[in-house]
Amino acid sequence: MNGPLRLGVIGCGNVLEAYRASIERLRGAGKVEVTCVCGREGQREAAVAGLRAGRFTTEAGAVINAPDVDAVLILTPMPLHASLARAALDAGKHVVVEKPLATTLEEASELLAVARRSPGELVCAPFTLLSPTFQAMARRIRSGQIGRPVSARARYGWSGPWWSDWFYKPGGGCLFDLGVYSLTSLTGLLGPATRVMAMAGVAIPEREINGRKVQVEAEDNAQVLLDFGQGAFGVVTTGFTLQQYRSPALEVYGTTGTIQMLGDDWDPEGYELWQNEVGAWQLYKETAPDWSWTDGLRHLVDSLREGTRPLITPEHALHVLEIMIKARESSRQGRALSIDSRFETPSFPGPAPAEAAHRMHDRSREHTGAGGGR
Known about the structure:
Number of helices: 9
Radius of gyration: 21 Å
Order of helices and strands: EHEHEHEHEHEHEHEEEEEEEEEHHEE
CATH superfamily of the largest domain: Dihydrodipicolinate Reductase, domain 2
Low-confidence stretches: 365-374
CATH topology of the largest domain: Dihydrodipicolinate Reductase, domain 2
Strand content: 25-35%
């Protein structure tokens, strides 16, 4: 691809603010120009000025079918993701869509069928696999530095949105909005899950949205247990019910060690590694503090310029969607359900990190009582 990618944006809500910085960096590097933006009429002035867009429209089709748009960035509410992405791919555009890929498996399967015959690439959030910290952890796991992974835990949650009620309506929920990050990260590290069992429900039945009371209809609290085969399991805690937390949000336990991400997987702060042969925690500080969870747009642009396929695949996004949908079914039925979809576990080129730890700390010496130690 020569010259800047001509980008059309659909959706001018809160998420666009996060993407604005990424778009500006890409524009400054001569890689992107925003030719068209779609939003509500009241968003026209801010959207055009903030993105330096060529024009504004209230019709999504005007972006999708525009001859001066190469790729479409979809930042709408979740229920619109699949239909807009499908239309853009049918029009031969590249697509970056926020999570989730779709809200039903039928929609997602149809979307993947369109993506396979379209000349456009389909890249779906979350983009946690793109962070340098995630990839360093993955390389260490793949190279056997903690032995065979047998258990994992991931968590993402907060007190919940107050600006829109669709998060709490059918098609929304904490799994689609938050749990999708943890599930993408765990499956990105450990590969496809084979079964899921979950508990999900409404813990806070009434919320205040922009000063008015709304009834919560989608789950706002969930625990998801995953079976990765060969006795390896993972658990995800997620919800609009977690006020604060400080412990690592992503941990993988192997037969000879442990690796854990500091910070959230969408905002990592480095990682810690325990290896039995070393006998101490090794701290590796964050190497890319400016990395953003909107990195999928940059990744698509670079993949097109370099002639490579994106690391983020729609098959992985479909697999995560199936886990979330069947987690809800599992909670209703009270039993484990099989996961049928599969994806190719991503590989991260290059050797495992060889740099020295920033700090060695034997925490086992702080816990010498029952249950402590290594």
